[in-house]
Amino acid sequence: MSTTSSSAAAVAEGSAARRFWIAASSREAAFATYTPFLLSLAAGSLRLDSFRHYLAQDAHFLHAFARAYEMAEECADDDDDKATITALRKAILRELNLHSSVLQEWGVDPTKEIPPSPATTKYTDFLLATAAGKVDGGKGSDKMATPFEKTKIAAYTVGAMTPCMRLYAYLGKELGVFLKQDENHPYKKWIDTYAATDFESNALQIEELLDKLSVSLTGEELEIIGKLYQQAMRLEVEFFSAQLLEEPVVAPLSRYRDPKDKLVIFSDFDLTCTVVDSSAILAEIAILSHQKASQSGSDNVLDRTKSADLRNSWNMLSNQYMEEHEQCIQKLLPPEEAKSVDYDQLYKGLEVLSEFERQANSRVIDSGVLRGMNLDDIRKAGERLILQDGCRNFFKKIGETREKVNLDIHILSYCWCAELIRSAFSSVGCLDGVNIHSNEFTFEGSVSTGHINRKIESPLDKVEKFKIIKSDLDSITPSLSVYIGDSVGDLLCLLEADVGIVVGSSTTLRRVGKQFGVSFVPLLPGLVEKQRRLWKQEASIFKARSGVLHTVSSWSEVQAFILGNDSS
Protein backbone atom coordinates (compact mmCIF):
# COMPACT_ATOMS: atom_id res chain seq x y z
CA MET A 1 0.00 0.00 0.00
CA SER A 2 1.47 3.38 -0.97
CA THR A 3 2.18 5.84 1.83
CA THR A 4 1.00 8.83 -0.25
CA SER A 5 -1.56 9.03 -3.01
CA SER A 6 -0.34 10.11 -6.42
CA SER A 7 -2.79 12.99 -6.41
CA ALA A 8 -1.49 14.30 -3.09
CA ALA A 9 1.92 14.49 -4.74
CA ALA A 10 0.40 16.86 -7.28
CA VAL A 11 0.08 19.51 -4.57
CA ALA A 12 3.02 21.91 -4.80
CA GLU A 13 6.37 21.08 -3.23
CA GLY A 14 6.61 22.57 0.27
CA SER A 15 2.84 22.30 0.61
CA ALA A 16 1.60 22.20 4.22
CA ALA A 17 -1.28 19.93 3.16
CA ARG A 18 1.12 17.50 1.57
CA ARG A 19 3.37 17.42 4.65
CA PHE A 20 0.43 16.76 6.93
CA TRP A 21 -0.86 13.94 4.71
CA ILE A 22 2.54 12.25 4.44
CA ALA A 23 2.87 12.37 8.24
CA ALA A 24 -0.57 10.82 8.71
CA SER A 25 -0.88 8.47 5.76
CA SER A 26 1.77 5.94 6.75
CA ARG A 27 -0.14 5.19 9.94
CA GLU A 28 -3.75 6.40 10.12
CA ALA A 29 -4.53 5.62 6.47
CA ALA A 30 -3.41 2.02 7.05
CA PHE A 31 -5.52 1.72 10.20
CA ALA A 32 -8.57 3.04 8.34
CA THR A 33 -8.09 0.76 5.32
CA TYR A 34 -7.73 -2.38 7.45
CA THR A 35 -10.82 -1.78 9.59
CA PRO A 36 -13.26 -4.72 9.49
CA PHE A 37 -15.90 -2.46 7.93
CA LEU A 38 -13.80 -1.44 4.93
CA LEU A 39 -12.35 -4.93 4.40
CA SER A 40 -15.88 -6.36 4.30
CA LEU A 41 -17.04 -3.57 2.02
CA ALA A 42 -14.11 -4.10 -0.36
CA ALA A 43 -14.84 -7.84 -0.47
CA GLY A 44 -18.52 -7.20 -1.17
CA SER A 45 -19.43 -9.30 1.87
CA LEU A 46 -20.66 -6.42 4.02
CA ARG A 47 -24.27 -6.95 5.05
CA LEU A 48 -26.72 -4.31 3.89
CA ASP A 49 -27.86 -3.51 7.43
CA SER A 50 -24.27 -2.60 8.31
CA PHE A 51 -23.94 -0.39 5.26
CA ARG A 52 -27.28 1.32 5.96
CA HIS A 53 -26.10 2.05 9.50
CA TYR A 54 -22.86 3.49 8.12
CA LEU A 55 -24.72 5.76 5.69
CA ALA A 56 -26.93 7.05 8.49
CA GLN A 57 -23.87 7.83 10.63
CA ASP A 58 -22.05 9.38 7.70
CA ALA A 59 -25.05 11.64 7.07
CA HIS A 60 -24.61 13.14 10.57
CA PHE A 61 -20.98 13.73 9.75
CA LEU A 62 -21.75 15.33 6.37
CA HIS A 63 -24.28 17.71 7.93
CA ALA A 64 -21.59 18.80 10.39
CA PHE A 65 -19.14 19.13 7.50
CA ALA A 66 -21.54 21.39 5.60
CA ARG A 67 -22.08 23.53 8.71
CA ALA A 68 -18.30 23.78 9.27
CA TYR A 69 -17.90 25.01 5.68
CA GLU A 70 -20.48 27.74 6.35
CA MET A 71 -18.60 28.81 9.47
CA ALA A 72 -15.26 28.79 7.64
CA GLU A 73 -16.78 30.90 4.84
CA GLU A 74 -17.92 33.47 7.41
CA CYS A 75 -14.36 33.70 8.77
CA ALA A 76 -12.58 33.84 5.41
CA ASP A 77 -11.51 37.35 4.36
CA ASP A 78 -10.66 36.69 0.70
CA ASP A 79 -13.45 36.53 -1.92
CA ASP A 80 -11.71 33.72 -3.82
CA ASP A 81 -11.40 31.72 -0.62
CA LYS A 82 -15.10 32.25 0.11
CA ALA A 83 -15.96 31.06 -3.41
CA THR A 84 -13.83 27.92 -3.00
CA ILE A 85 -15.46 27.10 0.34
CA THR A 86 -18.92 27.63 -1.20
CA ALA A 87 -18.10 25.21 -4.03
CA LEU A 88 -16.83 22.61 -1.56
CA ARG A 89 -19.96 22.97 0.59
CA LYS A 90 -22.14 22.39 -2.48
CA ALA A 91 -20.18 19.19 -3.20
CA ILE A 92 -20.95 17.99 0.33
CA LEU A 93 -24.66 18.72 -0.18
CA ARG A 94 -24.56 16.65 -3.39
CA GLU A 95 -22.94 13.84 -1.41
CA LEU A 96 -25.78 14.06 1.13
CA ASN A 97 -28.31 13.79 -1.69
CA LEU A 98 -26.51 10.66 -2.91
CA HIS A 99 -26.78 9.16 0.59
CA SER A 100 -30.50 9.91 0.65
CA SER A 101 -31.10 8.31 -2.75
CA VAL A 102 -29.12 5.19 -1.78
CA LEU A 103 -31.02 4.87 1.50
CA GLN A 104 -34.32 5.19 -0.37
CA GLU A 105 -33.24 2.51 -2.87
CA TRP A 106 -32.75 0.12 0.05
CA GLY A 107 -36.01 0.95 1.77
CA VAL A 108 -34.73 3.31 4.45
CA ASP A 109 -36.48 6.61 5.11
CA PRO A 110 -33.69 9.25 4.98
CA THR A 111 -35.86 11.68 6.97
CA LYS A 112 -36.10 9.22 9.87
CA GLU A 113 -33.69 10.32 12.54
CA ILE A 114 -31.11 7.69 13.52
CA PRO A 115 -29.09 8.92 16.50
CA PRO A 116 -25.36 9.40 16.01
CA SER A 117 -23.02 6.88 17.60
CA PRO A 118 -20.46 8.02 20.20
CA ALA A 119 -17.68 7.86 17.58
CA THR A 120 -19.73 10.01 15.18
CA THR A 121 -20.54 12.54 17.90
CA LYS A 122 -16.90 12.70 18.95
CA TYR A 123 -15.91 13.62 15.38
CA THR A 124 -18.71 16.14 14.73
CA ASP A 125 -18.17 17.86 18.10
CA PHE A 126 -14.46 18.20 17.32
CA LEU A 127 -15.15 19.62 13.87
CA LEU A 128 -17.75 22.17 14.97
CA ALA A 129 -15.70 23.23 17.99
CA THR A 130 -12.76 23.88 15.68
CA ALA A 131 -14.94 25.88 13.29
CA ALA A 132 -16.19 27.91 16.27
CA GLY A 133 -12.61 28.87 17.11
CA LYS A 134 -12.39 26.73 20.24
CA VAL A 135 -8.87 25.59 19.46
CA ASP A 136 -5.96 25.47 21.88
CA GLY A 137 -7.72 27.71 24.37
CA GLY A 138 -9.16 30.01 21.67
CA LYS A 139 -11.96 32.44 22.54
CA GLY A 140 -14.33 31.59 19.67
CA SER A 141 -14.80 33.10 16.23
CA ASP A 142 -17.65 35.37 17.38
CA LYS A 143 -15.23 37.19 19.69
CA MET A 144 -12.42 37.59 17.16
CA ALA A 145 -11.60 41.25 16.69
CA THR A 146 -9.61 41.33 13.46
CA PRO A 147 -9.99 39.83 9.98
CA PHE A 148 -6.60 38.13 10.46
CA GLU A 149 -7.82 36.35 13.58
CA LYS A 150 -10.92 35.17 11.75
CA THR A 151 -8.83 34.02 8.78
CA LYS A 152 -6.73 31.98 11.20
CA ILE A 153 -9.90 30.22 12.41
CA ALA A 154 -10.82 29.53 8.77
CA ALA A 155 -7.37 27.95 8.32
CA TYR A 156 -7.81 25.82 11.43
CA THR A 157 -11.24 24.67 10.24
CA VAL A 158 -9.99 23.77 6.78
CA GLY A 159 -7.03 21.99 8.42
CA ALA A 160 -9.47 19.80 10.35
CA MET A 161 -11.56 19.06 7.22
CA THR A 162 -8.82 18.43 4.66
CA PRO A 163 -7.74 14.99 6.00
CA CYS A 164 -11.25 13.62 5.59
CA MET A 165 -11.36 14.64 1.94
CA ARG A 166 -7.88 13.27 1.20
CA LEU A 167 -8.53 10.03 3.14
CA TYR A 168 -11.77 9.34 1.26
CA ALA A 169 -10.07 10.04 -2.08
CA TYR A 170 -7.28 7.67 -1.03
CA LEU A 171 -9.77 4.97 0.02
CA GLY A 172 -11.67 5.39 -3.23
CA LYS A 173 -8.49 4.63 -5.21
CA GLU A 174 -7.51 1.72 -2.94
CA LEU A 175 -10.96 0.09 -3.03
CA GLY A 176 -11.60 0.91 -6.69
CA VAL A 177 -9.18 -1.89 -7.62
CA PHE A 178 -11.66 -4.46 -6.30
CA LEU A 179 -14.43 -3.29 -8.63
CA LYS A 180 -12.40 -4.67 -11.56
CA GLN A 181 -12.56 -8.11 -9.97
CA ASP A 182 -16.34 -8.03 -9.54
CA GLU A 183 -18.54 -6.29 -12.11
CA ASN A 184 -21.56 -6.80 -9.85
CA HIS A 185 -19.95 -5.47 -6.69
CA PRO A 186 -22.82 -4.45 -4.36
CA TYR A 187 -21.07 -1.27 -3.24
CA LYS A 188 -19.86 -0.13 -6.64
CA LYS A 189 -21.80 3.12 -6.49
CA TRP A 190 -20.27 4.12 -3.14
CA ILE A 191 -16.71 3.23 -4.18
CA ASP A 192 -17.10 4.97 -7.55
CA THR A 193 -18.16 8.18 -5.78
CA TYR A 194 -14.84 8.46 -3.95
CA ALA A 195 -12.68 7.04 -6.73
CA ALA A 196 -14.08 9.61 -9.20
CA THR A 197 -11.96 12.41 -10.63
CA ASP A 198 -14.55 14.92 -9.34
CA PHE A 199 -13.92 13.86 -5.75
CA GLU A 200 -10.17 13.90 -6.32
CA SER A 201 -10.53 17.45 -7.66
CA ASN A 202 -12.41 18.45 -4.49
CA ALA A 203 -9.64 16.95 -2.34
CA LEU A 204 -7.00 18.88 -4.27
CA GLN A 205 -9.10 22.03 -4.05
CA ILE A 206 -9.32 21.96 -0.25
CA GLU A 207 -5.60 21.12 -0.01
CA GLU A 208 -4.75 24.12 -2.15
CA LEU A 209 -7.05 26.26 0.02
CA LEU A 210 -5.30 25.01 3.17
CA ASP A 211 -1.92 25.90 1.65
CA LYS A 212 -3.13 29.39 0.75
CA LEU A 213 -4.62 30.04 4.20
CA SER A 214 -1.44 28.76 5.86
CA VAL A 215 0.96 31.13 4.11
CA SER A 216 0.64 33.96 6.65
CA LEU A 217 0.59 31.75 9.75
CA THR A 218 3.40 31.47 12.27
CA GLY A 219 5.29 28.24 12.91
CA GLU A 220 3.32 27.75 16.13
CA GLU A 221 0.00 28.21 14.31
CA LEU A 222 1.06 25.72 11.61
CA GLU A 223 1.89 23.27 14.37
CA ILE A 224 -1.66 23.67 15.69
CA ILE A 225 -3.03 22.85 12.22
CA GLY A 226 -0.79 19.78 12.09
CA LYS A 227 -2.24 18.59 15.40
CA LEU A 228 -5.80 19.24 14.17
CA TYR A 229 -5.04 17.27 10.99
CA GLN A 230 -3.71 14.31 12.98
CA GLN A 231 -6.64 14.43 15.39
CA ALA A 232 -9.12 14.44 12.49
CA MET A 233 -7.38 11.42 10.95
CA ARG A 234 -7.52 9.52 14.25
CA LEU A 235 -11.23 10.34 14.60
CA GLU A 236 -11.83 9.07 11.05
CA VAL A 237 -10.19 5.76 11.98
CA GLU A 238 -12.35 5.56 15.12
CA PHE A 239 -15.43 6.33 13.00
CA PHE A 240 -14.73 3.43 10.62
CA SER A 241 -13.73 1.14 13.50
CA ALA A 242 -17.03 1.83 15.27
CA GLN A 243 -19.24 0.71 12.36
CA LEU A 244 -21.49 -2.22 13.27
CA LEU A 245 -20.65 -5.61 11.80
CA GLU A 246 -22.32 -8.97 12.33
CA GLU A 247 -20.25 -11.12 9.97
CA PRO A 248 -16.84 -12.60 10.82
CA VAL A 249 -13.87 -10.68 9.39
CA VAL A 250 -10.27 -11.82 8.74
CA ALA A 251 -8.79 -8.76 10.45
CA PRO A 252 -7.71 -7.87 12.98
CA LEU A 253 -6.12 -11.28 13.30
CA SER A 254 -6.14 -11.08 17.09
CA ARG A 255 -9.95 -11.10 16.98
CA TYR A 256 -10.40 -13.42 13.99
CA ARG A 257 -8.71 -16.44 15.51
CA ASP A 258 -10.35 -18.49 18.26
CA PRO A 259 -9.62 -16.65 21.56
CA LYS A 260 -8.57 -19.96 23.11
CA ASP A 261 -5.86 -20.39 20.46
CA LYS A 262 -2.44 -18.83 20.91
CA LEU A 263 -1.43 -16.17 18.41
CA VAL A 264 2.33 -16.49 17.85
CA ILE A 265 4.26 -13.66 16.18
CA PHE A 266 7.76 -14.39 14.85
CA SER A 267 9.99 -11.69 13.42
CA ASP A 268 13.46 -11.32 11.97
CA PHE A 269 15.52 -8.40 13.33
CA ASP A 270 18.12 -7.00 10.91
CA LEU A 271 16.49 -4.84 8.20
CA THR A 272 13.08 -6.19 9.20
CA CYS A 273 12.94 -4.25 12.46
CA THR A 274 15.99 -2.07 11.87
CA VAL A 275 17.04 0.47 9.27
CA VAL A 276 20.65 -0.80 9.14
CA ASP A 277 22.23 -4.24 9.50
CA SER A 278 23.66 -4.98 12.95
CA SER A 279 26.85 -6.65 11.67
CA ALA A 280 28.18 -3.35 10.32
CA ILE A 281 27.37 -1.64 13.63
CA LEU A 282 29.17 -4.29 15.68
CA ALA A 283 32.21 -4.12 13.40
CA GLU A 284 32.29 -0.34 13.78
CA ILE A 285 32.18 -0.66 17.58
CA ALA A 286 35.14 -3.07 17.42
CA ILE A 287 37.16 -0.72 15.20
CA LEU A 288 36.46 2.28 17.44
CA SER A 289 37.30 0.20 20.51
CA HIS A 290 40.76 -0.51 19.08
CA GLN A 291 41.17 3.14 18.16
CA LYS A 292 40.12 4.32 21.62
CA ALA A 293 42.46 1.83 23.32
CA SER A 294 45.38 2.92 21.13
CA GLN A 295 44.79 6.58 21.92
CA SER A 296 44.65 5.87 25.64
CA GLY A 297 47.87 3.86 25.52
CA SER A 298 46.21 0.72 26.86
CA ASP A 299 46.15 -1.29 23.68
CA ASN A 300 48.13 -4.05 25.39
CA VAL A 301 44.73 -5.33 26.55
CA LEU A 302 43.51 -5.55 22.96
CA ASP A 303 44.83 -6.93 19.76
CA ARG A 304 47.59 -4.59 18.49
CA THR A 305 46.14 -4.40 15.03
CA LYS A 306 45.83 -0.79 13.99
CA SER A 307 42.28 0.49 13.59
CA ALA A 308 42.96 1.34 9.92
CA ASP A 309 44.08 -2.23 9.24
CA LEU A 310 41.08 -3.54 11.15
CA ARG A 311 38.74 -1.41 9.04
CA ASN A 312 40.42 -2.71 5.88
CA SER A 313 39.97 -6.27 7.13
CA TRP A 314 36.29 -5.66 7.76
CA ASN A 315 35.80 -4.02 4.36
CA MET A 316 37.43 -7.02 2.68
CA LEU A 317 35.24 -9.45 4.63
CA SER A 318 32.13 -7.42 3.83
CA ASN A 319 32.91 -7.19 0.10
CA GLN A 320 33.75 -10.89 -0.05
CA TYR A 321 30.45 -11.71 1.64
CA MET A 322 28.40 -9.69 -0.83
CA GLU A 323 30.18 -11.12 -3.89
CA GLU A 324 29.98 -14.72 -2.73
CA HIS A 325 26.41 -14.32 -1.49
CA GLU A 326 25.27 -13.40 -5.01
CA GLN A 327 27.22 -16.36 -6.44
CA CYS A 328 25.57 -18.62 -3.87
CA ILE A 329 22.12 -17.34 -4.82
CA GLN A 330 22.81 -18.03 -8.48
CA LYS A 331 23.98 -21.53 -7.62
CA LEU A 332 20.86 -22.50 -5.65
CA LEU A 333 18.31 -21.27 -8.24
CA PRO A 334 16.61 -24.02 -10.25
CA PRO A 335 16.90 -23.74 -14.04
CA GLU A 336 13.13 -23.34 -14.50
CA GLU A 337 10.52 -21.45 -12.53
CA ALA A 338 8.26 -23.77 -10.51
CA LYS A 339 4.52 -23.52 -11.29
CA SER A 340 3.62 -23.98 -7.62
CA VAL A 341 5.61 -23.74 -4.41
CA ASP A 342 8.25 -26.47 -4.14
CA TYR A 343 9.15 -26.35 -0.46
CA ASP A 344 11.36 -29.44 -0.43
CA GLN A 345 13.51 -28.20 -3.32
CA LEU A 346 13.72 -24.77 -1.74
CA TYR A 347 14.91 -26.35 1.51
CA LYS A 348 17.63 -28.25 -0.37
CA GLY A 349 18.65 -25.10 -2.22
CA LEU A 350 18.94 -23.15 1.01
CA GLU A 351 21.26 -25.80 2.43
CA VAL A 352 23.83 -24.25 0.09
CA LEU A 353 23.15 -20.79 1.50
CA SER A 354 23.28 -22.12 5.06
CA GLU A 355 26.74 -23.58 4.54
CA PHE A 356 27.87 -20.28 3.01
CA GLU A 357 26.59 -18.31 6.04
CA ARG A 358 28.44 -20.61 8.45
CA GLN A 359 31.69 -20.24 6.51
CA ALA A 360 31.27 -16.45 6.38
CA ASN A 361 30.84 -16.31 10.16
CA SER A 362 33.93 -18.48 10.63
CA ARG A 363 35.97 -16.03 8.53
CA VAL A 364 34.81 -13.13 10.71
CA ILE A 365 35.68 -14.97 13.93
CA ASP A 366 39.11 -16.02 12.60
CA SER A 367 39.89 -12.43 11.57
CA GLY A 368 39.67 -11.20 15.16
CA VAL A 369 37.55 -8.23 14.07
CA LEU A 370 35.01 -8.82 16.83
CA ARG A 371 37.56 -8.92 19.64
CA GLY A 372 37.85 -6.19 22.27
CA MET A 373 34.36 -4.71 22.39
CA ASN A 374 33.06 -3.42 25.70
CA LEU A 375 29.59 -4.66 26.70
CA ASP A 376 28.49 -1.15 27.66
CA ASP A 377 29.44 0.14 24.19
CA ILE A 378 27.33 -2.61 22.61
CA ARG A 379 24.37 -1.71 24.80
CA LYS A 380 24.71 1.99 23.98
CA ALA A 381 24.80 1.16 20.25
CA GLY A 382 21.64 -0.90 20.69
CA GLU A 383 19.92 2.03 22.41
CA ARG A 384 20.78 4.26 19.42
CA LEU A 385 19.71 1.72 16.82
CA ILE A 386 16.98 3.15 14.58
CA LEU A 387 13.95 0.92 14.14
CA GLN A 388 11.77 0.90 11.04
CA ASP A 389 8.89 3.39 11.04
CA GLY A 390 5.99 1.87 13.00
CA CYS A 391 8.06 -1.04 14.37
CA ARG A 392 8.52 0.49 17.80
CA ASN A 393 4.81 1.16 18.21
CA PHE A 394 3.91 -2.37 17.08
CA PHE A 395 6.15 -4.09 19.62
CA LYS A 396 5.11 -1.69 22.37
CA LYS A 397 1.44 -2.50 21.76
CA ILE A 398 2.30 -6.19 21.62
CA GLY A 399 3.84 -5.87 25.07
CA GLU A 400 0.80 -4.04 26.41
CA THR A 401 -1.80 -6.41 24.98
CA ARG A 402 -0.12 -9.82 24.70
CA GLU A 403 -1.73 -11.30 27.81
CA LYS A 404 -5.16 -9.93 26.97
CA VAL A 405 -5.07 -11.31 23.42
CA ASN A 406 -3.21 -14.55 24.30
CA LEU A 407 -0.15 -13.76 22.21
CA ASP A 408 3.54 -14.72 22.16
CA ILE A 409 6.31 -12.83 20.34
CA HIS A 410 9.65 -14.30 19.23
CA ILE A 411 12.64 -12.71 17.47
CA LEU A 412 14.67 -15.12 15.31
CA SER A 413 17.88 -13.44 14.20
CA TYR A 414 21.31 -14.03 12.66
CA CYS A 415 22.60 -11.09 14.73
CA TRP A 416 25.96 -11.93 16.31
CA CYS A 417 25.03 -10.39 19.68
CA ALA A 418 21.62 -10.83 21.30
CA GLU A 419 22.49 -8.10 23.81
CA LEU A 420 22.36 -5.56 20.99
CA ILE A 421 18.78 -6.68 20.21
CA ARG A 422 17.75 -6.57 23.87
CA SER A 423 19.14 -3.04 24.22
CA ALA A 424 17.39 -1.87 21.05
CA PHE A 425 13.98 -3.04 22.25
CA SER A 426 14.55 -2.05 25.87
CA SER A 427 15.50 1.53 24.97
CA VAL A 428 12.14 2.17 23.30
CA GLY A 429 10.08 0.33 25.91
CA CYS A 430 9.39 -2.72 23.74
CA LEU A 431 11.32 -5.51 25.49
CA ASP A 432 8.48 -6.70 27.70
CA GLY A 433 7.45 -10.20 26.64
CA VAL A 434 9.79 -10.38 23.63
CA ASN A 435 11.59 -13.74 23.39
CA ILE A 436 14.94 -13.29 21.61
CA HIS A 437 16.61 -16.22 19.85
CA SER A 438 19.96 -15.20 18.42
CA ASN A 439 23.71 -15.68 18.62
CA GLU A 440 25.74 -14.40 21.59
CA PHE A 441 29.21 -12.94 21.92
CA THR A 442 31.49 -14.60 24.44
CA PHE A 443 33.04 -12.22 26.98
CA GLU A 444 35.95 -12.15 29.38
CA GLY A 445 34.59 -9.87 32.05
CA SER A 446 32.84 -7.20 29.98
CA VAL A 447 35.12 -7.41 26.91
CA SER A 448 34.34 -9.56 23.87
CA THR A 449 36.75 -12.37 23.06
CA GLY A 450 35.99 -12.31 19.33
CA HIS A 451 34.15 -15.64 19.47
CA ILE A 452 30.43 -16.20 18.91
CA ASN A 453 28.15 -18.68 20.61
CA ARG A 454 26.63 -19.75 17.30
CA LYS A 455 22.94 -20.60 17.71
CA ILE A 456 21.15 -19.20 14.65
CA GLU A 457 23.32 -18.40 11.63
CA SER A 458 21.47 -19.84 8.62
CA PRO A 459 18.02 -20.24 7.05
CA LEU A 460 17.94 -23.86 8.25
CA ASP A 461 18.77 -22.85 11.84
CA LYS A 462 15.97 -20.30 11.75
CA VAL A 463 13.30 -22.64 10.44
CA GLU A 464 14.28 -25.44 12.83
CA LYS A 465 13.99 -23.05 15.77
CA PHE A 466 10.65 -21.86 14.39
CA LYS A 467 9.38 -25.46 14.24
CA ILE A 468 10.53 -26.26 17.77
CA ILE A 469 8.80 -23.21 19.25
CA LYS A 470 5.63 -23.86 17.25
CA SER A 471 5.58 -27.57 18.16
CA ASP A 472 6.06 -26.83 21.86
CA LEU A 473 3.16 -24.38 21.82
CA ASP A 474 0.89 -26.67 19.78
CA SER A 475 1.44 -29.45 22.32
CA ILE A 476 -0.28 -27.21 24.88
CA THR A 477 -2.86 -25.34 22.81
CA PRO A 478 -3.65 -24.77 19.10
CA SER A 479 -1.90 -21.75 17.64
CA LEU A 480 -1.97 -19.41 14.66
CA SER A 481 1.46 -18.22 13.54
CA VAL A 482 2.71 -15.10 11.75
CA TYR A 483 6.27 -14.61 10.52
CA ILE A 484 7.59 -11.20 9.50
CA GLY A 485 10.83 -11.04 7.51
CA ASP A 486 12.70 -9.28 4.73
CA SER A 487 15.29 -11.60 3.17
CA VAL A 488 16.05 -14.99 1.61
CA GLY A 489 17.17 -16.17 5.04
CA ASP A 490 13.55 -15.75 6.21
CA LEU A 491 11.97 -17.58 3.28
CA LEU A 492 11.48 -20.99 4.91
CA CYS A 493 10.00 -19.45 8.06
CA LEU A 494 7.74 -17.18 5.99
CA LEU A 495 6.35 -20.26 4.26
CA GLU A 496 6.07 -22.38 7.41
CA ALA A 497 3.98 -19.74 9.15
CA ASP A 498 0.21 -19.60 8.73
CA VAL A 499 0.73 -16.00 7.60
CA GLY A 500 4.02 -14.86 6.05
CA ILE A 501 4.53 -11.08 5.83
CA VAL A 502 7.38 -9.55 3.83
CA VAL A 503 8.62 -6.07 4.74
CA GLY A 504 11.08 -4.13 2.62
CA SER A 505 11.80 -4.51 -1.07
CA SER A 506 14.48 -7.20 -1.37
CA THR A 507 14.71 -8.18 -5.03
CA THR A 508 16.80 -11.23 -4.11
CA LEU A 509 14.03 -12.58 -1.87
CA ARG A 510 11.48 -12.15 -4.63
CA ARG A 511 13.78 -13.61 -7.29
CA VAL A 512 14.49 -16.75 -5.25
CA GLY A 513 10.91 -17.12 -4.05
CA LYS A 514 9.44 -16.74 -7.53
CA GLN A 515 11.83 -19.32 -8.99
CA PHE A 516 10.64 -21.84 -6.40
CA GLY A 517 6.95 -21.10 -7.06
CA VAL A 518 6.29 -18.59 -4.28
CA SER A 519 3.74 -15.81 -4.95
CA PHE A 520 4.06 -12.32 -3.45
CA VAL A 521 0.72 -10.57 -2.93
CA PRO A 522 0.18 -7.15 -1.29
CA LEU A 523 -1.49 -7.65 2.08
CA LEU A 524 -4.66 -5.63 1.42
CA PRO A 525 -5.75 -7.49 -1.77
CA GLY A 526 -4.74 -10.74 -0.08
CA LEU A 527 -7.00 -10.05 2.90
CA VAL A 528 -9.89 -8.95 0.70
CA GLU A 529 -9.65 -12.27 -1.17
CA LYS A 530 -9.54 -14.15 2.14
CA GLN A 531 -12.58 -12.20 3.31
CA ARG A 532 -14.47 -13.36 0.22
CA ARG A 533 -13.48 -16.96 0.97
CA LEU A 534 -14.57 -16.55 4.58
CA TRP A 535 -17.90 -15.20 3.38
CA LYS A 536 -18.30 -18.33 1.24
CA GLN A 537 -17.47 -20.37 4.36
CA GLU A 538 -14.35 -21.91 2.88
CA ALA A 539 -12.03 -23.63 5.35
CA SER A 540 -8.33 -22.95 5.94
CA ILE A 541 -8.32 -19.20 5.32
CA PHE A 542 -4.79 -19.03 6.71
CA LYS A 543 -2.62 -22.07 5.99
CA ALA A 544 1.09 -22.86 6.30
CA ARG A 545 3.03 -23.66 3.12
CA SER A 546 0.32 -22.15 0.93
CA GLY A 547 3.06 -20.65 -1.25
CA VAL A 548 1.60 -17.14 -0.88
CA LEU A 549 3.46 -14.42 1.03
CA HIS A 550 1.99 -11.01 1.74
CA THR A 551 3.93 -7.78 1.22
CA VAL A 552 3.57 -4.54 3.18
CA SER A 553 5.09 -1.10 2.88
CA SER A 554 5.12 -0.31 6.60
CA TRP A 555 4.84 -1.78 10.08
CA SER A 556 1.60 0.20 10.47
CA GLU A 557 0.01 -2.23 8.02
CA VAL A 558 1.30 -5.13 10.11
CA GLN A 559 -0.14 -3.61 13.27
CA ALA A 560 -3.47 -2.75 11.64
CA PHE A 561 -3.80 -6.33 10.37
CA ILE A 562 -2.74 -8.14 13.55
CA LEU A 563 -3.99 -5.87 16.35
CA GLY A 564 -6.42 -3.49 14.68
CA ASN A 565 -7.31 -0.01 15.85
CA ASP A 566 -8.48 -1.11 19.31
CA SER A 567 -4.81 -1.56 20.21
CA SER A 568 -3.37 1.32 18.18
Automatic annotation (TrEMBL):
Residues in a coiled coil are none
Q: Which Pfam families match?
A: TENA_THI-4
Which InterPro entries does the protein's record reference? HAD-like_sf, HAD_sf, Haem_Oase-like_multi-hlx, Thiaminase-2/PQQC, Thiamine_Salvage_TenA
Tell me which SUPFAM superfamilies the record gives: HAD-like, Heme oxygenase-like
GO cellular component entries: cytosol
- Residues annotated as domain Thiaminase-2/PQQC: 36-132, 155-243
Q: Which GO terms describe its biological process?
A: thiamine metabolic process
Q: What is this protein called?
A: Thiaminase-2/PQQC domain-containing protein
Q: Which organism is it from?
A: Triticum aestivum
- Gene responsible for this protein: LOC123164774
